[in-house]
Amino acid sequence: MNFANFPRPSDPAPLWQGAGEPSTAGISAAPSAELAPKPRLPRPTTAPTQEAPAGLRFDFNDGCRVMLPDAGRAWRVRLSDRQTGNVLFDVDLRSGHVNSAKRYFVPFRLEVWSDDERVLRHDYDARGRDVLIQFPVGTIGDVIGWFSYAVKFKDVHQCRLTCAMGEPLIALFRSAYPDITFVTHEMVEADRFYATYSVALFFDDAEFVYQPCDFRQVGLHRTAAYILGVDPAEQPPFVALADDSRPIAEPYVCISVQATTQCKHWNNPEGWDRTVAFLRARGYRVVCIDQHPVTTRDPYRTQIPAAAEDQTGDRPLQERARWLRHAAFFIGLSSGLSWLAWASGTPVVLISGFTHPTNEFATPFRVINYHACNGCWNDAGHQFDHADALWCPRLKDTPRQFECTRLITADHVKATLLSIPGFGEGLPPSAQLPSSGVAEPTDASDAYDARAALAEPDGSSDEEPLAISELLERNLGDVHRGGLAVGLTVGAGKMLDQAAEFIAEGDRAATAGELAAAIASYMRSAAMVRTLTEADPDHPGFQRNFSVALNRIGAILFVQRDLERAHATYRASLAVAERLHAAYPNNTGYQRDLAWSHALLADVLTAESRHQEAFDHRRANTALTTQMCAAAPGESNLQRALANSYQSLGDALIPLGHGHGALAAYRVSLGLVQRALSANNQDPAWNQLSRTLLPKIRNTLLLLRQGAPAS
């Protein structure tokens, strides 16, 4: 606890560095000098801004501050943390100023006594009050990563939020967040704020004055959550574009090869050229959107790959975001444009070795080589030196310098690219692309991949097996077998087992793209189970397996776009599921079957443009899934099913013109996703759900703000 005098505006500011990437890459709009890191964040006013009885003044503009006038008697001041119950400070003094030791968010309780009379008791409460959250100027990715936590702070505390940041980033966020005031540091009116929080990277904060934990241990973006005391689950901010049109008609990929220090670069000398050649061979145009086409740091020189299209230069961030939003994916480094791609909703292939993957946002397409030296940025034993462009704290001036990315191979990156869903589908071969000096594949593996892109398995297209495999991953129902089950004759048990085997054969054929063979197997299974059902109409196991077979037949018909027959088949399956659920209302398996049947029928109804009916079945699916989650709150699969159900419910509301209702459904889904990722932010299923959900929320908000039809 500090007391005596507050820091004056001329006093040295706390030591902070402007972050992982003080780069101006991709920014124009203002000269680069305006974006250079400043030596400090703006200071608060000398005197606290809030008036209190007996001439006291207080605020939370640099921690908790209170000013005690000389009234001819002693004052007693106590500061407490209401969350932990700890008394942080309790002292008697005649007059002066008291400032808490902690400058990040703490739910303070401030109490002041004069003699034995308590004259002030104030619990921190920002509701309806002005709060300033300020970010350093000169960084792009850091502020993009931090900003969504400022939004969370506003939502939690219901305050009037002002955010101070660089002008290029203000242009990116202002239209997307009309309920937040954006200012540059020069525009800050410090005397009107109830509280101020500074979000930055504090390298020398050994006493944890400005942050509750070292940012290197929690991740570059999540450090803002700890400074502001909000949920650390990551969430990309919304980005509003003045021009959201597609820059070019052909499928394209954006890349960024430049960064502010050499350790961030992909230092494999063949990496970029081979990767661009591979992408061109697959039919993509490759567009480089760096600020500079060439950087030189003796003896290192990095330039735009010869085969890439040049969109470098001093350009506004909104233009960069426009290119990113429509790209098939982005390949970049641990730098600002990767964070901008993340915020734009674009899949990010992130190549980095000097940072640990937890340092950046979660992406399933992270490329790191653990066989090499790695993670020095997140090692608290090595402080990053912004002045050293060749910073390599462990291996500098040795043959192993920058091996963290030098040993990342082009083959490693290509394998990651091939894992992106939909990679290369429907694209022409490179020979059909407009000539732009593209290099041919440089090795046999590249040539093989280029040929493979044109191949079709067994004469069928790539689309059918992919679509059916995705559909088979849906909940079509588990198959019950007979064997020695109680209540079955030996003959009936064998027939049920045989019917189950036909289902398995159909699944194998469908996965291989052999749809005719698959539907034949499913229909044989359905016929056998129908025979069993006719012999014993009240046996629930027979009825259920009949429903399962119908679901699979409907899936094949749906993929083949035979919507009328698919509709009839799913409707028959739904009727069976409804009968079983009515007869056995406490059976969770039958309850799940009914929920799945509603979802499957909704898929077909949506394809038939019968949107109101589709919504009715989505709503029934959501209601049933909610009941199942309430009965089994710890079952993660059910929680994920519920998140998916709310997302699908939002999808069903959009064509009905109920934008606000869709947004509410999406936000319920988002809450479930954030809760799951806060427990395990590496879970691929939840991350995939997050990637599909966040662009829908962003686009719905933009539609509503543009006056689209809403409920």
TrEMBL record:
Domain of life from the UniProt record: Bacteria
SUPFAM superfamilies in the cross-refs: TPR-like, UDP-Glycosyltransferase/glycogen phosphorylase
Gene3D superfamilies with a match to the protein in the record: Glycogen Phosphorylase B (3.40.50.2000), Tetratricopeptide repeat domain (1.25.40.10)
Keywords for this protein: Glycosyltransferase, Transferase
Domain named Autotransproter heptosyltransferase TibC/BAHTCr-like N-terminal: residues: 53-116
Transmembrane stretches, start-end: none
Region (Disordered): 1-54
Database matches in InterPro entries: Aah/TibC-like (IPR030929), Glyco_trans_9 (IPR002201), LPS_LOS_Heptosyltrfase (IPR051199), TibC/BAHTCr-like_N (IPR049327), TPR-like_helical_dom_sf (IPR011990)
Listed NCBIfam families: hepto_Aah_TibC
Protein name: Autotransporter strand-loop-strand O-heptosyltransferase
Organism: Bradyrhizobium denitrificans
